[in-house]
Recover the amino acids of this structure.
């Protein structure tokens, strides 16, 4: 039998444990909209949850880099051999060649949808900082040249037969290498140019016969006073154009062919054409960042800050110049360099017969885009010039009609910076422009106009779409700006697009 006095004491103790409302510091009202049970939120609330769509159009990938891939190049004789350099101080060489199947996928019982890793051919080390420049020498593609933020240039012998890359030579003349471009001159197949962060320009020749120095300096130029940001050879490889953050533009005569053709320079160096920011007709405030030379070599397009583009006439050299005399003159100056440190950079005078009346003249000043012009490309078979801007737009100019604006695709990459534009090299592809951007997407544009665009295949990502000439797009990189964009691409002969991803991955797409 229970003790009544004991029960009364328990009830009194429970009442004393309750908090009196007057003793509370704050009373929080009930929120009827706040879900009290997570399971109840899941039931019937699926429509309120955010759904992320991931799209990957690639057919293969390469993911051995542990940091961003800054540069990419394809072999000139076998474009399925790809070389990449990254922020992990490493260069990789791999092949994107895939044997053709005996039957198309539609004939397969269980067609595979998985993506395979591509075949690695070589891993090249030796740089102590990011590899941000890479190129194969032209001709037979005997050498792979890499440049890094450590200022080093490293050369490997490239064998497509044995698939073995053997270290040959290295050099370090500068603190940081900005770019490497191989020379297309048929008489100098193993020659390349280098632009550095100190503004200097170097031209090297690879000489395997010389047992002491495999890398020889043909020329060195010092007219740029700030970082040398980009360069381009003329199609015949006789002249080299370079630009700088100081707003200067120079055309160099590294092999003496302009001098042999009667084109003279007003300075002691070999810049046959030169402009600086001191010339108000040419001046672009905040620097120059891209340059391209027309297929005929008649003029160069220079892109800079605030969407500015300058078109400059170039000397036209006579092909009848004696190559033997030019080569002998070049050999006599090997290793000496053209150490011109004058601060002038004025427009130079040229011979009217050899250089043409437009040589050294500003032919046009263009501004249709609002931010820096990061990339320029001429169509090899049509009178078109494409410009890609940090503002995310692409502008197409008609070079045959006073550089009239043919099209301005304002949201070509959804507001993200356009990193590279490139026209197709073959005649049937010369109307088509490829582009990539920091949105992580590769796009293909038909520059004949929206009416000529194919009915199918266009993606839905780019504002402007089919009416702006969008043919197709390829996705797979993370995108969304820094860390997920595409920093470059190459297109193989077999119609594959290979990318250099800021996310450290190289993706292979099928056109």
């Amino acid at each position: 039998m229970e003790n009544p006095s004991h029960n009364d004491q328990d009830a009194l103790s429970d009442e004393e444990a309750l908090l009196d409302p007057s003793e509370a510091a704050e009373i929080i009202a009930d929120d009827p909209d706040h879900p009290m049970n997570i399971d109840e939120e899941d039931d019937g609330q699926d429509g309120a949850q955010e759904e992320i769509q991931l799209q990957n159009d690639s057919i293969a990938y390469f993911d051995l880099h542990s940091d961003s891939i800054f540069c990419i190049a394809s072999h000139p004789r076998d474009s399925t051999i790809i070389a990449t350099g990254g922020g992990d101080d490493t260069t990789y060489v791999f092949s994107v060649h895939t044997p053709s199947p005996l039957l198309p996928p539609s004939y397969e019982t269980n067609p595979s949808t998985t993506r395979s890793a591509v075949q690695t051919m070589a891993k090249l080390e030796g740089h102590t900082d990011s590899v941000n420049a890479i190129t194969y020498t032209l001709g037979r593609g005997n050498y792979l040249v890499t440049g890094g933020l450590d200022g080093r240039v490293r050369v490997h012998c490239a064998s497509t037969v044995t698939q073995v890359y053997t270290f040959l030579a290295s050099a370090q003349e500068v603190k940081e290498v900005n770019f490497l471009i191989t020379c297309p001159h048929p008489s100098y197949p193993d020659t390349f140019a280098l632009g550095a962060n100190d503004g200097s320009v170097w031209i090297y020749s690879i000489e395997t016969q010389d047992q002491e120095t495999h890398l020889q300096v043909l020329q060195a130029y010092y007219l740029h006073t700030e970082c040398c940001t980009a360069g381009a050879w003329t199609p015949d490889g006789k002249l080299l154009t370079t630009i700088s953050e100081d707003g200067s533009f120079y055309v160099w005569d590294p092999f003496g062919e302009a001098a042999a053709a009667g084109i003279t320079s007003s300075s002691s160096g070999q810049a046959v054409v030169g402009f600086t920011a001191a010339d108000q007709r040419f001046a672009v405030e905040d620097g120059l960042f891209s340059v391209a030379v027309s297929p005929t070599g008649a003029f160069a397009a220079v892109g800079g800050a605030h969407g500015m583009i300058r078109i400059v006439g170039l000397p036209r050299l006579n092909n009848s110049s004696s190559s033997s005399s030019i080569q002998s003159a070049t050999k006599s100056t090997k290793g000496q360099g053209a150490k011109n440190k004058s601060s002038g950079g004025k427009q130079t005078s040229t011979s009217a017969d050899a250089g043409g009346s437009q040589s050294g003249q500003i032919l046009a000043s263009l501004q249709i885009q609002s931010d820096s012009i990061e990339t320029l490309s001429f169509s090899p078979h049509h009178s078109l010039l494409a410009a890609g801007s940090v503002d995310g737009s692409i502008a197409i100019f008609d070079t045959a009609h006073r550089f009239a604006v043919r099209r301005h695709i304002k949201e070509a990459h959804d507001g993200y910076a356009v990193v590279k534009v490139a026209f197709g090299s073959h005649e049937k592809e010369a109307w088509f422009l490829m582009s990539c951007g920091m949105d992580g997407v590769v796009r293909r544009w038909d520059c004949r106009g929206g009416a000529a665009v194919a009915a199918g295949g266009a993606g839905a990502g780019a504002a402007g779409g089919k009416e702006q000439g969008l043919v197709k797009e390829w996705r797979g990189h993370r995108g969304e700006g820094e860390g997920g964009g595409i920093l470059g691409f190459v297109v193989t002969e077999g119609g594959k697009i290979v990318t250099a991803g800021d996310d450290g991955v190289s993706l292979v797409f099928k056109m």
User: Anything to note?
Assistant: The longest helix spans residues 4-17.
